[in-house]
């Protein structure tokens, strides 16, 4: 029996256990779409290729399982931003793009583009399928590459003539590996001698801290991270912009390793005698491992699950090649054997400073009376959480909206607020991912409410994706922090420009809530703080995809204030 190349592609993904495909249906994709239909793999048709990519990214981040983003050759260009966002978070999305005919390559074929070269710097593996007989082989390679070592997105380019041509349905199966089902991903366990050396460097520390990155998430080791912090009395911090690892209410979790968004981290970083960075890169967010972020008096240790990560952490004093979970297991084993005896003084000191910070942030927050009735963005983020239950998911998207929401999450978590989980943009801070991430949170957690807090600019960047929520009957609540412009950029300009004004950053008064009503959802305008909580509750109770359009007054966030204090340096870095 002969089947089309697209069907071979679908069967290869079925063998790997892929459970979800996102696409913008195009003519180039039809054979693959028929194959996914026959394999009974669900496909969601998005209103834009970038949206399809963000949906795939969000789904993969939540499930930690690769899924497929399938687009045509012209759609590849639209999917590049989503590819970049997945690359920043090392999300193992498999991007499959149709391309011009293989036999006419380089001759100006229909919609011809060098997608392999464009995708190469944004993926772990980017390659063109060269023959239909090798489709299963390329899928096998891509799937394994996406998950192995330092995970990340991969890209397969499938020429249209291979996509539509017919091949024997068992083609390629006579070659090894004969079984191409999903297998456990190989992980690095610490060399005993190396582990001894690292443990010798940290066992006598009196002021250790642990900074966890996205490698911990992809290894599924967040519960072990919590156990290490709790039982070994080590304060735990999260790298900014990476997947949330611990709930803010968990006792060892202190906040972001960001001296602007969480001021007590400056004290912890400055006073620590040993800093253990697990599953993260010493990039711009960690000042490349350099002082003053990591003082020269601190012993800086990096533990990573792949050589790619270790290669990026050349500034570390000590490095260890180990899966984060295996490293945590080893620490716990040595603690249980009596080799770790740190008391709680340092731990309690950091916890107390977190409490002082929470009290100060709340006391410094202007009241609505002091703001003449205006709504502060921190009010929005705090009140939205009060309307949520502990199994609900919170998604954040925007510039200043993101910064203020991060602060609010830490405050609310310290006060005992529990949430199902939190999603937000990754390393590249790409605006417009929020609605897509919220939809995938609802897909994977249908019994939980999902609430997105989005800046107005962020919603304008990716709000069209909300149609997928209506189409797939996945009701989410979108709370828009509507300050009438790109407030984060306006504030930077006002501190950078000699005129002390902003330019080309304002929006008109957009009735976002009416847009949702027109699509068949629930909409409500909020202009006073006392209406935020009941409005969110009404939106949740409506059972519809809903928008709460909150008119706010822009307020500069601590991170923007700190990074724009000098006109000659108004940059995050």
Strand order in the sheet with the most strands = 3-2-4-5-7-6
Q: Label the overall shape.
A: globular
Mean pLDDT rating? 93
Largest sheet: 6 strands, parallel
Summarize the amount of helix as a percent range: 40-55%
Spans of at least 5 consecutive residues whose pLDDT stays below 50 are none
Distance between the termini: 59 Å
- Number of helical segments with 4 or more residues: 23
Radius of gyration: 25 Å
What's the domain count? 3
**What is the name of the CATH superfamily of the largest domain?**
Thiamin diphosphate (ThDP)-binding fold, Pyr/PP domains
- Percent strand: 15-25%
Brief summary of the model shown:
The protein is an alpha/beta fold and 573 residues long.
Structure description:
- The chain is 40% helix and 16% strand.
- It is globular.
- β6 (125-128), α6 (135-147) and β7 (154-159) form a beta-alpha-beta unit.
- It has 23 helices and 20 strands.
- The mean pLDDT is 93.
- By secondary structure, the chain is an alpha/beta fold.
- The strands form four sheets. The chain has a six-stranded parallel sheet with strand order 3-2-4-5-7-6.
- The longest helix is centred in the middle third of the chain and has 20 residues, at 345-364.
- It has three domains: 2-168, Rossmann fold; 192-353, Rossmann fold; 366-563, Thiamin diphosphate (ThDP)-binding fold, Pyr/PP domains (Rossmann fold), CATH 3.40.50.970.
- It starts with a strand and ends in a 10-residue tail after the last helix.
